[in-house]
Amino acid sequence: MITLFDDPRLNLARGALGAVRIDHDPMLPPRVLRLIDAEGNEFFAKQHSERDRYVRELRAYLAWGAHLIGHIPRVVGQQDMTCTLLLTAVPGVRADTLAPGSPEEEQVHHEAGRVLGKLHRATSVPRSGAVGTDLAQRLRHWISRADRAGLISAVERNGLSHSADDLASTSLDSSVCHLDYQPRNWLLGDAFGLCDFEHMRHDARVRDFARLEFRHWQAVPNLRTAFFAGYGRPLNDTEQRLLESFGAIEAVTALVRGHEQDDAALSTHGRTVLARLS
Predict the structure, then answer these.
(1) pLDDT tens sequence across 197-232
(2) Which CATH number does the domain 8-88 belong to among 3.30.200.20, 3.40.50.1820, 3.90.1150.10, 3.40.50.150?
């Protein structure tokens, strides 16, 4: 058990910043600390439990952060041995705490679209069949796990497999994608802020809209409209069809993760998305 005396996050912060104090924030996950230095500046120290996520997040900041200057934290320190990062704090209010239906909620979706469009355009890669093939393989992997656990019916399995076949036969344009792009990772302040890059990698560009489409936009289409106004263009018919295939990935991964982690909310979300796709 890690104590405050041997916590790698505090050790990294003290080595980089000197004396710091913890600002306890119940909104943060247990692996993240909000810290205040002697001058009152805020920082976040984050320790990953999985090395590949640490490596991916560090690479996101170092390799692609230049496309998001002014919107993301800066890396102040890192410790590879303990998979720990020390980051500056981006000022702002978490977008998932904004009042539903408020002008601020629509504004943050517009800004989120604008910033994501900037990242996608800067890192765009021409269409390739390899992206769809890889995603189809991932989807089939999750289908097998769900099937073995008895989480899907034969009819549902066939529908999900059809989505995998569709992905495998489609050439997709790709870019660097955040892959957890939703309000809990956005900050509304003087500028739009963005955090949590542990999933970031090159992937099918349209996939970056999946969590918004299936978790946030169904009952509030004006937020979708605001987002794509900021992004620069709406989805065409082909991209909308592909988004449904990415919904299959969203559904089956939520079902499996919800089952494995005994997370009823996640399981319900997976079941809801799957019902929509049927």
Answers:
(1) 999 999 999 999 999 999 999 999 999 999 999 999
(2) 3.30.200.20
